[in-house]
Design a protein that fits this description.
Elements lengths: L9 E9 L5 H10 L14 E8 L2 E8 L10 E7 L3 H5 L1 H11 L5 E7 L11 H11 L2 E4 L8 H16 L1
Parallel strand pairs: 1-3, 1-4, 4-5, 5-6
Antiparallel strand pairs: 2-3
This protein binds guanosine-5'-diphosphate (GDP).
Length: 167
């Protein structure tokens, strides 16, 4: 974790959206604090979390919200489904519509298939998500908030693409 720069060059607002129980809160605490909380809803009352990363020698503070209805002003979105819950993937198209209706046109969207550690319970093949992401122009990652696999990579990619869009 990079910590405590005196000077922040940019603040990027990012929203984490998707069906209930897909792991939005856990992804956020994994990225912001490198934690996975078994007591999941310990974040009640916290509106957003932040983490500052270095992109092209600039300090970029990601301000990340996992509460619904925060799309306004967001530069990026993590659209999360659960690879073990087909229904959460079937709803992804609706979440994209929601974003296109309520967020800025230039919003960068990453599709995230979370709980990749539960390989035996998988019901959403990677190829289905790859195809959807390509059709919709989304970045795509499979992650595990539990193991941490790909979580930093996915958030960093999103932040880098936002940086490319705005600079
Ligand atoms: P949210 O409602 O989308 O914010 O989902 P939560 O972050 O509260 O997670 C819902 C449940 O899934 C909790 O019991 C988490 O412990 C569990 N969970 C979240 N991410 C993962 C993951 O990557 N792997 C596994 N195995 N469980 C996860």
């Amino acid at each position: 974790l990079e910590s405590g720069p005196d000077k922040i060059d940019y603040v990027f607002k990012v929203v984490v959206i998707g069906d209930s129980a897909v792991g939005k809160t856990q992804l956020l605490s994994r990225f912001a604090k490198n934690e996975f909380c078994l007591d999941s809803k310990s974040t009640i009352g916290v509106e957003f979390q932040t983490r500052t990363v270095n992109i092209n020698s600039k300090f970029v503070k990601a301000q990340i919200w996992d509460t619904a209805g925060q799309e306004r002003g967001a530069l990026g979105a993590m659209l999360v489904y659960d690879v073990t819950k087909r229904q959460s993937f079937d709803h992804v198209a609706r979440w994209v519509e929601e974003l296109r209706a309520h967020a800025d046109n230039s919003i960068v969207i990453a599709l995230i298939g979370n709980k990749a550690d539960l390989a035996d319970l998988r019901t959403v093949p990677t190829e289905d998500a790859v195809e959807f992401a390509e059709n919709q122009g989304l970045y795509f990652f499979e992650t595990s908030a539990l193991s941490g696999e790909n979580v930093d990579t996915a958030f960093r990619k999103l932040l880098e693409e936002i940086y490319n869009v705005i600079s």
